[in-house]
Amino acid sequence: KNQVEQSPQSLIILEGKNCTLQCNYTVSPFSNLRWYKQDTGRGPVSLTIMTFSENTKSNGRYTATLDADTKQSSLHITASQLSDSASYICVVTPGGSYIPTFGRGTSLIVHP
Amino acid sequence: DAGVIQSPRHEVTEMGQEVTLRCKPISGHDYLFWYRQTMMRGLELLIYFNNNVPIDDSGMPEDRFSAKMPNASFSTLKIQPSEPRDSAVYFCASTRSSGGSNEQFFGPGTRLTVL
Questions:
Q1: Terminal-residue alpha carbon distance, chain B
Q2: Which of A56, A101, A111, B87 is most deeply buried (CB count within 10 A of its CB)?
Q3: What is the pLDDT along chain B (115 residues), one digit of tens a residue?
Q4: Count of CA atoms in the C-beta half-sphere (13 A) of A101
């Protein structure tokens, strides 16, 4: 069964600090992995997409890594801002499909 | 493009009433998805359409749920009769199969409360 597990479930950090969110998946065959950011009261928005051959991808202060061998991904947020407070969802799509498997998300709160 | 449009944004109804949620996908997108999001279960795929045709409705929880897509620019999700356990945020998302990217673009969601 395709599964995506995220940790931690929730995280509280101070503004300006860095943090790393984790994602483990069992989706097979693998096509791509996305990290979505979901602000309160809004729909998820894609931050990054990674395919099998990519190890690292950055989007501003967000850097995603992928280890396809261990089926793990991480999202690193540098110099956090209050606007980073949101839920971050790891989404994995199997090859030959448009139907992704969603993780439960990590709720991040950035305090001033 | 205005993105995926959903209406209403909030719906409060009483148990037993019919509820209809509406979605307008992004123009040119040929896939449309309906999701339900709760704290306990996260995002769950209910049903998806390709070129207005329902492809997989295995995620629809019960016969009380039904979805239609009469044309490329409009879809509805109906719950009849509604129950308190249907309370959740319902998202519509769309994507385009051409171009290589399968990024799903989500609407703002409809927060449904069934009393």
A1: 36
A2: A101
A3: 689 999 999 999 999 999 999 999 999 999 999 999 998 888 999 999 999 999 999 999 889 999 999 999 999 999 999 999 999 999 999 999 876 667 899 999 999 999 9
A4: 20
- Interface size A-B, in CB pairs within 8 Å, comes to 41
**What are the residues whose beta carbons fall under 8 Å from the beta carbon of B79, sequence distance 6 or more?**
B18, B19, B21, B64, B65, B86, B112
Neighbours of B67 (CB within 10 A): 20
- Name the pairing type of β-strands B110-114 and B10-13: parallel
Considering only CB atoms, A93 lies closest to which of B41, B56, B102, namely B102
Distance from CA of A80 to the nearest CA of B (A): 25
Who contacts B98 (Cβ-Cβ below 8 Å, separation ≥6)?
none
